[in-house]
Write a structure and sequence with these properties.
Length: 266
């Protein structure tokens, strides 16, 4: 599994990256990056950029400099069409949530799709049905990306560092959506090196919003989430995630222990 890091990250970590993502305003340093990090995929984000302001001829030059290891992260279909016309590899920065949408990106020639829910919860089918046609990207530390209101992110799209060996057979690239470079460094170490986190889950995942200590979540939870289809939100009585997080709540554990001790004293 490859890892993508922010182009403004320090060199110590960039040397470990398989992909480096740059903002459009930093595009002038792409020649330097292609020289300093040979073989690494260089990704240029076309976020919040007016379509008419994109210099596609310049991007073609960058693609040549990078020896074919150049991609653009696009935000709309017009950018996708222009990338295709100019023979520049591309993918959408937004999560893909349906088969219909996924097939559309395959048809237009995207190199990756960023898996969203509920497709994220159908890993076996995704790999079997689409694995030969397109590669998958995932952001493991964010439960959901829209701005709607949820009680918490327990049933959302998160992957624990401990679960990376399980997911590595399905996912091609992970990246961390975090503008804090020090936090990205810590996330890299947790997910790619130590692959363990002992603290509260809400400190690890954005939009989690629930108590629960990660070290108390059994590996069976990840195996259940892998292909559950997120059926908990479709009327199923599955409560595996909620139950696991609830049982890992330190306050509830303390209260339970207190009740047990009081019962013994009676």
């Amino acid at each position: 599994m490859k890892v993508c890091l922010n182009g403004r990250q320090n060199k110590k970590f960039l040397k470990k990256a398989d992909e480096i993502k740059l903002e459009y305003r930093d595009r002038r340093i792409i020649p330097d990056f292609s020289r300093d990090y040979p073989g690494v995929n260089i990704i240029l984000e076309l976020v919040n950029i007016e379509d008419e302001d994109i210099d596609w001829k310049l991007l073609q030059e960058y693609d040549f400099m990078c020896g074919g290891n150049f991609y653009v992260c696009i935000t709309n279909i017009q950018q996708a069409k222009q990338a295709s016309i100019n023979n520049i590899k591309f993918y959408s920065g937004y999560p893909v949530e349906t088969d219909f949408e996924l097939q559309g990106w395959i048809n237009i020639g995207a190199s990756y799709v960023r898996l969203g829910m509920p497709l994220f919860f159908e890993m076996d089918r995704m790999r079997e049905q689409y694995g030969d046609q397109i590669k998958f990207r995932v952001v493991p530390n964010i439960c959901y990306t829209n701005n709607l209101f949820y009680e918490n992110g327990i049933n959302g799209q998160w992957i624990r560092p401990e679960d990376m060996p399980l997911y590595s057979q399905y996912i091609d690239v992970i990246e961390f959506e975090d503008f804090d470079l020090q936090r990205e460094q810590k996330l890299y170490e947790l997910y790619m090196e130590t692959q363990e986190w002992f603290g509260p889950m809400k400190f690890l995942f954005n939009n989690f919003g629930a108590d629960g200590v990660n070290r108390m979540i059994p590996p069976e939870v990840a195996r259940a989430r892998l292909n559950c289809g997120q059926r908990c939100l479709r009327g199923s009585n599955c409560r595996i995630c909620n139950r696991a997080v609830s049982l890992a709540d330190p306050d509830k554990i303390e209260a339970y222990a207190k009740n047990v001790l009081e019962a013994k004293d009676e």
